[in-house]
Amino acid sequence: MSLPGPKPRSNLEELLEGIWKQNPVFIMMLGMCPTLAVSVSAVNALSMGLATGFVLSGSTLLVSLIRNIVPREVRIATYILIIATFVTVVDYLIQAISLAIYEALGAFIQLIVVNCIILGRAEAHAARNPPLRALLNALGMSMGFTIGLLALGAVREILGAGKLFGISLFGPDFQPWVVMMLPPGGFFVLGAWLLFFNWFNRRKTPVASDKPAQGHAHV
After folding, report:
1. What is the pLDDT confidence band of residue 207, given thresholds at 50, 70 and 90?
2. What is the DSSP string of 91-137?
């Protein structure tokens, strides 16, 4: 008799996976280059998160739609071509919306092409699942990545400039922590968030009791 396979995940579980259980920033630690580089402000973090989410969702959906007609020998090249097309669209959209944001994000917009989150989702999930499940998983990963970027960007902007989304919070007497606007500040804040999530997960994990089980005789 064959054992039953694992129960397939629901659509809600597909969506929530990337937000919490497999958060790209705090759990999987993917895409660290743009995460640390552009998270000097909440606006930059949100912009990069939305841009990456658009590319991830669009490319994942398209990869899932054509998964049965692309030969295995050229699948990676096909995925990169699809991703690069969506990145080009995002590049022109950001230029049209705000040149200030475009200049702040710089080359990291084009580097979305080689973001391991996107290529990993295309290869490991979208190429093996139907379009709806692939899209939901991509949306969850996009939200998780954006939340991670915002968590870093908000802390760095508040401590490093006394602002949030450009709005002053503490008045003219606030002494900013300049280090937060520098590369080391990104590592400090990321380490603090990782420490927090590690502590939170340990609190959720039940600790085995050291007491002997009832009914066992002591030797």
Report:
1. low
2. HHHHHHH-HHHHHHHGGGTGGGGG-HHHHHHHHHTGGGS-HHHHHHH
- Residue 100 placed within a domain: yes
Whole-structure pTM value: 0.82
What tokens does 85 get? Answer: 């097309």
Residue 215 lies in a domain: no
41: closest CA among 215, 185, 195, 202?
Answer: 185
The pLDDT of residue 205: 67
185 in any annotated domain? yes
Q: What is the mean pLDDT of residues 46-70?
A: 91
Range of the domain at 90: 11-167+177-202
Answer yes or no: are the C-beta atoms of 119 and 83 closer than 8 Å: yes
Residue 4 lies in a domain: no
